[in-house]
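Second attempt. The first submission of 2-oxoacid:acceptor oxidoreductase family protein had a stray character pasted in from the spreadsheet, which I only caught after the job came back as garbage. Lesson logged: always re-copy from the clean sequence file. Corrected sequence (183 aa) follows.
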Amino acid sequence: MKEIRLHGRGGQGVVKAAQTIVSTVVDDGSYGQFIPFFGVERKGSPVYGFLRLNDEDIRIKTQVYYPEILLILDDTLLDMPQTFAGLQEGGTVVLNTSKSIEELNLPKTVGTLALLDAEPIALSHIKRNIPNTAMLGAFAKATGLVNWDKLKDHIAATFGEPNRLAADEAYEKVRIINLGGAA
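This time the job returned cleanly.
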């Protein structure tokens, strides 16, 4: 079972992104579960959620305490202690940022880093700074956990063709860096 934690801000599409991943893996014959967590429910507030993907039924219904993967839609959340809490040694971080790797203060547990500046992609295709569909493209390429063709179909069906184009561009542009951590 793969355990993933998503971090973002209200209005960035964290919940819809996770629901799209779940619907894609279920459509592909696997199992998925998403449990959102909202603090203050308002636009711009930190939002996170817990995603599990598996080939078998998922019975556990708790938070993800030791994620293998973090999907972070807003780099302003990097300084919050809970963002990297419990990340497994050699874990993967898929991050929306315009910063260079040298500007990021990442913990030593990060083994693979996938960097994408999703803002210009979102603005180009959907005319709004909502990074979720672009980050779905980055997530798909960085992890290989979802069927890319089916994910693009789900993105188009849920969000529309411009969002599918944003995901396509992100899939091609994401920069994946091996930081040498154990997987």
